[in-house]
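INFO  loader      accepted 1 record
INFO  loader      residues=511
INFO  predictor   begin
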Amino acid sequence: MRVFYAITRCCVRWIAAALMCGAVPVVADDVLRVGSKRFTESYILGELITRTAQGAAGVRVEHRPGLGNTAILFAALKSGAIDVYPDYTGTIALELLGLSRVPVLEELNRRLAPHGLEAGIFLGFGNAYALAMREQQAADRSIRRITDLKEFGAARLGLSPEFLNRKDGWPALRDTYDLDGLPVRGLEHGLAYEALARGQVDIIDVYTTDPKIVSSGLRVLDDDQRFFPDYEALLVYRADLPKRHPAAWARLATLQGSITAADMTAMNAAVELQGRSFSAIAVEWLQQKRMSPDTGTASGMAGAGGLADVLFGPDLARLTLEHLLLVCTSLLLSVAFGVPLGIWAQRAPRAGAWILALTGMLQTVPSLALLAFLITALDRIGAAPAIIALFLYALLPVVRATETALAGVGGDMRDAGRALGLDGKQLMRLIELPLAMPGVLAGIKTAAVINVGTATVAAFVGAGGYGERIVAGLAVNDHKLLLAGAIPAAVLALVLEWGFRRLDRKLSGRG
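INFO  predictor   done
INFO  writer      dumping tokens
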């Protein structure tokens, strides 16, 4: 049993350290939480909102970047996990509220009211969806309109996952333009431009403020049937935000009509083409506009420096503590539940078949799908759904290793224990578990290493960790950011592997 005490002590120490160092945000009424989606423009707007609100005296503002798609942000807003995030009128009306058109703001707010939400503070620019292809290819095939795609033949479309499933996305666009039969593949928006340049796809979905449209030499196809609605950028917020944070709200109101489409395109270009950080761009724009006297020091994940600069950036300590919190807490739960389940599976073969089948089935559920389900079930984002998801993924190796290790304990050893007068519990505690401990420990080690990698998806729901860098790197197709998230995760996995080996040797030496 010493291994369980050792693992528990280790996990508790890491959790306590993370809490003491502020890795887990404390929910408080005086904190204004800003959310953003996982694409360049939303990251930048999230930073602009955050730093503008920080100019209000006595207000603490937190930015939870790259939380995921529209549905996750909307759920987070309704649950109170965030207070405000930037969105677009077309997205709110068609995707979130299921309307057939984009109404005026008063009607939009009337529809949002039952959710306890409001929309307002138009930022001054619009950013619509569009389809684009290489200029030379479009010229060769005389394609200028989306309607012309019917004459393209087997055009290969690479569309972002959200656009593929939005009500104002591909399914409705396909039906409107009668484009059935075209081969379509899901492709992360940040990677689509490279795939198009390499000729791996012919058409991608773009945002009209994407700077790479010009730099990549693309032709935006004319929406000749006026399918796409207006996508005016504005803030979506909890209805009580202006009353809870009047000073911050007054600061946010100064953003009304302040950002032009050219401004937004230039800010996107500074991140995607020059490799500058989201926060640095936000600070620079606010200083140029002289809208915020206290924008703070520019920091952030993206940057124009080398890999070492990004890897050892100022957020490394925070991300490491958040990642350790996710891994250690979920591992502790998997040990607490998995070992007893493994014992039960070995003791009762009929029940064991069901236990192993169910824990195995959990491994087949896609991580993002499980996170989305847990967000709905718990009505919150952040560490809680991420820890539960990681705990469920870690159950199988712990349960299976415990069951297999106990099954390998010889019958002679059990008979010897019974001959000494040991009952079932004593036999398990004094003979079977100590003999099975190397196998059990191997399962726990496997679960820990798996969780280190899987924990990176927790960034999609605002739980932090190294995944924040990976998600941001995908958004802007920044290889340095991707590596700056992947390398520490790999190092952490190696450290855990080394730690478990030392623990195994230490326990073996004592035994």
